[in-house]
Amino acid sequence: MEQSLIEVEGGCLCGKVTYQASLKPGAGACHCGMCRKWSGGPLMSVHAEGSVEFKGAEQIKHYASSEWARRGFCNYCGSNLYYHLLPRPGLPDGEYIITAGSVNDQSVLKFDHEVYVDHAPGWYSFANESQRKRMTEADLLAMYGA
Ligand SMILES: [Zn+2]
Ligand SMILES: [Zn+2]
């Protein structure tokens, strides 16, 4: 699915960290247990293309939540900023998956996928399921060839 990129600005709640990024407008929700612990609910996020330019980067703290990604947040106000996949061949800076809520103008985002739907706890759901791609853990692992 080809999508044109959108240029956005965003940042944390206190404003000490801001960024500029090129995003693929398709936003997603992850229902996995780690994302729910980290974000307090399903993690709503959007993929950045290329590197992201941060101001106030010295305020960013990281938590390595797995062997292949770390999660960045503002050390002052606690806002979650991104999920950062480790660098790999062809993507030397790694891929940034930005929290949708940190984007300043969210009117440009389109909710088009959900992942780990088989891990969703059952007490919430989003409307209009049929308008999105919905993937289980197995779907996702198959997609990444794991
Ligand atoms: Zn902050
Ligand atoms: Zn997740």
Provide structural commentary.
The structure is a single chain. The protein has 146 residues and is mainly beta. It has a single domain (6-143), classed as Metal Binding Protein, Guanine Nucleotide Exchange Factor, Chain A (Beta Complex). Helices cover 10% and strands 44% of the residues. The protein has two helices and nine strands. Strands 1, 2, 3, 4, 5, 6, 7, 8 and 9 form a nine-stranded mixed beta sheet that branches. The protein is globular. One zinc ion binds next to loops. One zinc ion is lined by residues 30, 32, 34-35, 43, 116.
Strand count, sense and barrel status of the largest sheet are: 9 strands, mixed
Secondary structure class reads mainly beta
| Overall helicity | under 10%
- Number of spatially distinct domains: 1
Runs in which pLDDT lies below 50 for 5 or more consecutive residues are: none
Seen as an oligomer or otherwise, the chain set is single chain
**CATH architecture classification:** Beta Complex
Q: How many strands appear in the DSSP assignment?
A: 9
Task: State the name of the first-level CATH class.
Answer: Mainly Beta
How much strand content do the residues show? 35-45%
Shape field = globular
- Name the bound molecules: zinc ion
Q: What is the CATH topology classification name?
A: Metal Binding Protein, Guanine Nucleotide Exchange Factor, Chain A
